[in-house]
Amino acid sequence: MKEIWIFAGIVVLLIYPVLLFALRRIFRKSFIANVGGVILAAQCFIGIECFVIGKLGIIHLAWVFPTGSAALFITYYHMYRFMRKPLSAITSSLDDMSEGNLVITIDPKTKKRADEVGRIASAMDKMTKNLYEIVTNLKISADKVSENSSLISNKANEVSEGVTNQAASIEEIAASIEEMTASMQLNAENANEANKFVTTASEEIDEGAGYTKQTVTLMSEITEHMQAIRSIADQTNLLALNAAVESSRAGEHGKGFAVVAKEIRALAERSRQLSDGISELTDQCFIYSKKSGDNMNEVLPGINKTTNLVKEIAAASNEQRTGAEQINESVQSMNQITQVNASSAEMLSNIAKEMDSIAQKMNEGAKFFKTEAADLE
C-alpha cells in the first residue's frame, strides 16, 4: 500500500507538473496546452489506477473501471465546453454572416481567451465591426451617390435643354448676322458705286467749270472782236458820209459815186446794228456763263464734301462688313462650342444615369447585409 502512495505522489507531485510545464511551454497561447493538460491529468489518474491493479490484483478493476471512465467523461466534457461550444458559436455566427446578418455578438469570455479560439473570436468580432462599418458607409455612400446622380442628371438635363435653346438662339443670331452681313455688303457695294458716280460727276463738273471759264474767255474775245467790227462800221459810215459830200460837190459826175456811198453807208449801218445785237447777245452769254461758273464754284465744294462723305460711308460700310464677318465667325465658333457643350451635357446625363444605376446596384448589394435589428424581421 505504501508503494502505491509513493507512486501516486511521484506522479502527482513530479511527473504531472513537469509534463504540464513542458506542454504549456511548448504550446504557449494554444488550446492544445489546456486540452493536453486535462488529457495528461486523466492519463496520470488512469496510470495510478493501473499501478493499483498491478499491485493489489485485478479484483480492484470493479472500482478502477468506473472511476477511469468518469475521468475520461470529465475530460471529454471539459473539451466540449472548452472547444466545441465556442467553436459552435463562432460557426453559427459565420453562418449568420454568410446570410448577410451583421448584427451578431461574440461572447466576451471567448474573446478574452489567449489561445487560437480567442484570437479567432477577436478577429471575427473585429472583422464583423469593420464589415458593419463598411456596409453602413456603403449604404450611405450609395444613397448619396444615387441622390447626387439624380441631381446631376436633372441638372444635366436642364443644362442640355438650356444649351439646346442657346444653340437655337445662336443659329437664329447667326442667320440674322448673315443677312445683316449680306445687307452691309450690298450697302458697301452701293456706296462704292455711289462713290464712283459722285467722283465721276465731280470730275465732270470740274471739267464743265473749266469749259465755262474757257467760254467766258472766248466771249470776252468775241466782244473785243465785235467792238473792232463796230469801230470798222463807224469808220465805214464816216467814209460813206464823206463820199456823199464829195459826190454832191461833183454834181452830175458824182451821182453814181453818191449811190455807191449810200449803199456802203447802209451796209455800215446794218453791220453796226448786227454788231450791236451780237454784242448784246454776247454780253448776255457772258453774264449767264459767269453765273453758271459762279454756281459751279458754289456747288463744287458741296460736291467735294459729298464725295468725301460717300468715301467715308463706303469705308465705314467696308469696316462694318468686316466687323459683321468677324462677328459671324465668332458666332459660328460659339455655335460649335455650344454644340460641344450640348454633347458634353448629354454625356454627363448618361454618366449620371449610369452612376444612378451603379448606386442602385450597390444599394441592392448592401441591402443583403443586415446592419440593424429591424432588418432581421
Keywords:
377 residues; mainly alpha; Helix Hairpins; 2 domains
Description:
The protein has two domains: about 1-95; about 145-365, Methyl-accepting chemotaxis protein (Helix Hairpins). The longest helix has about 140 residues, at about 115-250. Helix content is about 90%, strand content about 0%. It is mainly alpha-helical. Helix 1 (about 1-25) packs antiparallel against helix 2 (about 30-55), helix 3 packs parallel to helix 5 and helix 5 (about 115-250) runs antiparallel to helix 6.
Q: Kindly provide the radius of gyration, computed on alpha-carbon positions and rounded to a whole number of angstroms.
A: 69 Å
Please, how many domains?
2
What is the CATH architecture descriptor of the largest domain? Orthogonal Bundle
Q: Which CATH class of the largest domain? A: Mainly Alpha
Kindly report the average pLDDT value: 72
Report the portion of residues in β strands.
under 5%
Major sheet characteristics: none
Instruction: Summarize the amount of helix as a percent range.
Output: over 70%
Distance between the terminal alpha carbons, to the nearest Å? 68 Å
Sketch the topology as an H/E string, one letter per element. HHHHHH
Oligomeric grouping of the chains? single chain
CATH homologous superfamily descriptor of the largest domain: Methyl-accepting chemotaxis protein
Find the structural class using helix and strand composition: mainly alpha
